[in-house]
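The freezer alarm interrupted the setup, so I double-checked each line after restarting. Inputs confirmed:
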Amino acid sequence: MEKRTEIKELGEFGLIDRITRNFDIKNPSTRIGVGDDAAAIECGNEYLLLSADMMNEGVHFDLTYTPLQHLGYKAISINVSDIAAMNGVPQQVVVSLGLSNRFSVEAVEMLYSGVKAACEDFNVDLVGGDTTSSASGLIISVTVTGRVDRDRIALRSKAEKGDIVCATGDLGAAYIGLQVLEREKQVFLANPEMQPDLEKYPYIAGRQLKPKARTDIIHELAELNVKPNAMIDISDGLASELHHLSKQSNVGFFIYEDKLPIDKQTYDTAVEFNIDPITCVMNGGEDYELLFTIRQDDFERLKNHPDIHFIGYATEKEKGVNLVTKNKNVYPVKAQGWDHFNEKEKGK
Amino acid sequence: MEKRTEIKELGEFGLIDRITRNFDIKNPSTRIGVGDDAAAIECGNEYLLLSADMMNEGVHFDLTYTPLQHLGYKAISINVSDIAAMNGVPQQVVVSLGLSNRFSVEAVEMLYSGVKAACEDFNVDLVGGDTTSSASGLIISVTVTGRVDRDRIALRSKAEKGDIVCATGDLGAAYIGLQVLEREKQVFLANPEMQPDLEKYPYIAGRQLKPKARTDIIHELAELNVKPNAMIDISDGLASELHHLSKQSNVGFFIYEDKLPIDKQTYDTAVEFNIDPITCVMNGGEDYELLFTIRQDDFERLKNHPDIHFIGYATEKEKGVNLVTKNKNVYPVKAQGWDHFNEKEKGK
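Predicted 3D structure, all chains:
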């Protein structure tokens, strides 16, 4: 019998490593290939950045509680986030749709009104794609381009020992927002006359349904003349992203629990759900904030920024990735993030 | 009740027109947006080309008779074909996969061995993508980049009255190949002990399962110093592509039945299936040959090319798109091509 290895045994990143390891780069225009938030291609004096993300119904979204406009917005936003994570500015998107016959023209128009709103917010042009049918459910596959000056590109591999670790916005909200949406769905399924109780949770529900890529931060870093050493967007959870930076930059990290940015609604709702709020921050996915490291010399220029938080520092690789609790205990951080191939592990 | 318009009422192209008409172009780097085989973006002294195609299990392929290696090859090839259709040279691809838990790591490796073979044949680099799960079946979404000199880009909109219409290779083979594959599948389902009878049809089965984009033609046109006025790849059938050129260039066409390139195996198999061979040529999809127009002055330079066929000429728009039969009768050509949203019409 032929060998059968389940994909969840390897996980998403293990699978990508395995299937791409035999590929080589043949074109001199290819400067960065697989392994960062986006690829980088020579384009005159700049780099053109290229990244793709696919969202599938029943895996990445549930149309029971996801408005199509928000979904269209999110599909663009999460792609733009990968361009921001390279310190780049987004420019074009191509959107490929797979539609089952459940979807009407009006439904696709709703979806595209969200795509359009995102294109306007992020100043990107819709330049193409593919519109086709699917045997079941909705598929949204987006590719985004961006630009970055050659000397300003931020890679996952360039963090250095002594760098200060920065995170934007707040973390964990999208994950706990998802818990609320799922709970209200169950309440509705059990009793369709119950109204969903979302008014109490506008911020966290919005963070899940309509995240906003942090292109604002990229413009501000340029204005403040700060170039991050390494950068990544927080899509799979802070813990997972720290491990990517650690692995690719050959550094370790100390992260301080009392420096982690968490919104009050996230905190209160986590407590309500009996989930440790720090678990939401460390392992909850889909925040689409930015995680980056800066040289200590750049701290002065950023220290008054209201939405950039200094959560720790980079150290020797051998020390690993660590969380320093409020009680000064030090725990190794596991790489556990959102893995679509093994959803059961999520949030544990 | 809300209005519900079925997508098949509009068809793929009507839907694309409807959902993209409110989008505007904001970035000066965007030179060609939605509406051609690929978008064109300024990139130093050249244009960077960008195109995407999605293939969904149960719609675009049937794994009962499609080897995964061939499918991986085809996913790249059909995207590269869109770059060729702009007179460009492909350079990079990003590949996003949706995988249900039916697929093992070994299956994905098979698929990627085909992706790799295509990357080598077409000299393109795999630079990224997304690997995620799907609720059902296999989804392959590819975006390809390419390059073209600014003065050599070939658009759908630049055919001129008097141009000679050229088609590469031969047409209709992929469509009739699909009929054979479908028939053998039914035979197998009825009696699993029957062996599929594909040895008789190697060429047409191969044209369906593993089409090869005509990047060779692009290099030869450059060597012969011929720039097509207008170009498109033949993915939805010759009739449909002629109508795209007609609409976007404001010209009509006369196409001669006796000039249409058809392989003997295609012809014989069409007869065996009781299908008019010319219907296969005109309306069968997935040939991935190139359809282009040239100035009459360029005919001399191409006339001895063994794989470029001169099938008609462009005329005034008012005359429409016409087929001149062997008996010199003239029939208007309907735009009927492959439409995933209305498969029943296919091939009629």
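Quick read of the result. The longest strand of chain B covers residues 46-56.
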